Amino acid sequence: MKRIFTFAAIIFIYFLANYYVFRHINILIEYSSGWVKNVFFLLYLFLPTSFIVFFLFVKKLPVYPATLLYKISTGWMIILVYSFLLFFLLDIVVYGIRQLQILPSSFLIEETGVKIVLVLLLFIGIYGHLNYLQKRRIKLKIKTSKKLDTPLKIVMISDLHLGFAIRKKELKEWIRKINEEKPDLLLIAGDIIDNSVRPLNYYHLEKYFKEIKAPLGTYACLGNHEYLSNIGESISFINKTGIQLLRDSSVLVNQRFYIVGRDDRTNPARKSLSELCEGLDRSKPVILLDHQPYHLEEAQENGIDLQLSGHTHRGQVWPLSLIADAIYEDSHGYLKKRNTHIYVSSGIGIWGGRYRIGTQSEYVVIEFSSKNEA
Prior knowledge:
This protein is α/β, with parallel strands linked by helices. Helices cover 46% and strands 17% of the residues.
């Protein structure tokens, strides 16, 4: 009952925000010709409901129209955030100008303000998309007190969100960047899939993963979006890629170090970290893949040397990044808890509309070595 009430409240706020934004834009439309008003009215009906339409009909639509609908609907959600904020700021400014009588009463404050907001939205959208396309290379040097023989070069990525929005072109570019690093190991911290396996199978994206060159292998854990996409279908797709999926399991690589992969916390029956670490040779380094970075103290308590997580996107756009910072102990970046090193990635991909504002898309290059190595 509580979840239904929360969902209903979110939907109500969402449509209220849409009404608020379109009411402001209507200031420019109300004296326009009939066809302009008709187009505006259709947009007023379509944009707020497009996301709901997508999820109602995604399984029945062909891949191409579903892709277009997904991009429009999720992109609008990001634009809505900034439209609401800018129009709210405009209302405050207009109120202040009128109270202080700074401009003559004949000056068209609202119309001018709406035009300025629309221009700002255009520039914000262009910047946000270009910023998303720019992938940051994060370099880390992590040292463990345990014996490792020789240093490891690890590339870590998370939150690929392959699907209707992100497909072959971007995946191939990411794999090119990974291979340029010549890593010993590639680790993927969940959310390979966005919300449906159908476009991944349609474009045969599994074959591109086989172009990854990492001598010690490619390992991944599950994320919450693998569950949203149907966990059985998600696992079936991942198995076709050649990626070794660690679902509440561990592997000893070349008798040198362990990789432990936790099931996503979406599964309430997943094993505890202490259960997963039972029987491990604690003289060897242990790397943990855990998609959602909750309860980071557990890694410290269980002697994990390096935890790699994703999930947060650091909110994806400001000011949602402030909410992510408030929710997570580490919403993005490096954190050390005693002898445990933790890195939470903001993700190489993105959910929905491809905009990054105040956050970044990234891949992480880690030099992992023993403290006693030169």
